[in-house]
Amino acid sequence: MAYFGKMKGHTQSPPRVSWTEILWSWIGSFIGIAAVGLIHFTLLDHTSLIMIIGSFGASAVLVYGAIRSPLAQPRNLIGGHMLSAVIGVAAFQFAGGIPWLAAALAVSIAIALMHLTKTLHPPGGATALIAVIGGDSVHQLGYLYVLMPAGLGALVMLVIALLVNNLEPKRRYPEFWI
């Protein structure tokens, strides 16, 4: 019974954030995703390269909406995406013929290595998974996937986070770099 008792939770839900906080989160996420999307659709769409991946949506939640979270800091954003991209590509190359195995290896190894390197960023798990299930356009990139979209996209989002999150006097980003 103690095992199931832990599932009831032990604290109350945090209070709602202010309308100002919501507005700044919206502005940051809009500009961040728009910048990454603009680069993709104006510069890269006619090439075999990609810039925007689904895991950046989750990163936007963290770096624009939960800016004080340890998981949203620059080290975690950049390191989490790039490390997970390496692992995802390697998992696909090692076990891509067995997609469920490659997917499980990519995500679980990425989590373990992010923990070990203090770069835990939950969207990194999706970045690793996308390297496995992303289809031919992703698979053809091979390890270039680490630099673009994973690294460069995360870097664009970081620059926007630094600019936007510090406009409001009560917001400060980052909490730490290393």
Descriptive overview:
The chain is an all-alpha fold and 178 residues long. The protein has one domain. Helix 3 packs antiparallel against helix 6, helix 3 packs parallel to helix 8 and helix 4 packs antiparallel against helix 8. The longest helix is centred in the first third of the chain and has 26 residues. It starts with a helix and ends in a 13-residue tail after the last helix.
Give the arrangement of secondary structure elements.
Blueprint: H1 2-5, H2 19-44, H3 55-65, H4 74-95, H5 99-116, H6 123-133, H7 136-139, H8 144-165
Helix pairs in contact: 2-3, 2-8, 3-6, 3-8, 4-5, 4-6, 4-8, 5-6
How many alpha or pi helices?
Answer: 8
| Weakly predicted, low-confidence segments | none
Order of helices and strands: HHHHHHHH
Quickly give the structural class: mainly alpha
> What helical percentage do the residues reach?
55-70%
Content of β-strand: under 5%
- What is the terminal-to-terminal distance? 42 Å
Radius of gyration: 17 Å
Mean pLDDT: 95
Indicate the overall shape: globular
Number of domains: 1
Q: What's the count of strands?
A: 0
Main sheet characteristics: none
Entry summary:
The chain is mainly α and 178 residues long. It has helices at 2-5, 19-44, 55-65, 74-95, 99-116, 123-133, 136-139, 144-165. Helix content is 66%, strand content 0%.
Sum up the structure in keywords.
8 helices, single chain, 178 residues, mainly alpha
